[in-house]
Amino acid sequence: xxxxxxxxxxxxxxxxxxxxxxxxxxxxxxxxxxxxxxxxxxxxxxxxxxxxxxxxxxxxxxxxxxxxxxxxxxxxxxxxxxxxxxxxxxxxxxxxxxxxxxxxxxxxxxxxxx
Amino acid sequence: xxxxxxxxxxxxxxxxxxxxxxxxxxxxxxxxxxxxxxxxxxxxxxxxxxxxxxxxxxxxxxxxxxxxxxxxxxxxxxxxxxxxxxxxxxxxxxxxxxxxxxxxxxxxxxxxxxxxxxxxxxxxxxxxxxxxxxxxxxxxxxxxxxxxxxx
Lengths: 114, 151
Hints:
- Chain A has about 110 residues and is mainly alpha-helical.
- Chain A contains 8 helices and no strands.
- Chain B has helices at about 5, 10-30, 65-75, 80-85, 120-135, and strands spanning about 45-50, 60-65, 85-90, 90-105, 115-120, 145-150.
């Protein structure tokens, strides 16, 4: 749990974009809307519009190895990992309030593409 | 699979949507609004009823083609544990101006993934609109009360 929190906080400080979407708002969306939202990340990475600060994931998309690209742009796996984290991680109330879904998505990417 | 289910029709157009999402996430978003124009012509859609939150209510996702509707439905159904999260209908033809009351916002015409999004709950409509349009930079219409029938 501490590892998860530390990693998420680290990613928060390294995230290359600002976000305003809090966890409760995200979870209050219909399932299809949540799906569309995560899709924005995979498409953004695939199209090169989104880049992580150390280019770990961005670089994978420039590789010719299909399995590397597939890993980063697997919407289903990413969405599943994101939801797992959102629903299972027992953040305290203050931390949960300050977290943003985008930070969780980055952490989910670490899980999907270790 | 690089979201290939979205690319079969108009990958360039979806790229524009993705670009807008990316721009929003990098802090360059604008919250543009377009006027509400009731969708017409052949329309398809499916309903989603949340099984985990009673405050969300029913949503309807409207597209211009049956193929796009099926792709959206397949993607939502493919989520792990999907059957316990929401009850999803089949894709059916949709008509506006008759049927059940929904709060609806519409996407600009170049967005293919969805043409309109409806919710029986005004708050859910506003939240969905905020996340899918205002934050993405895609100029969606305001949530507007209308009626939709799934045939």
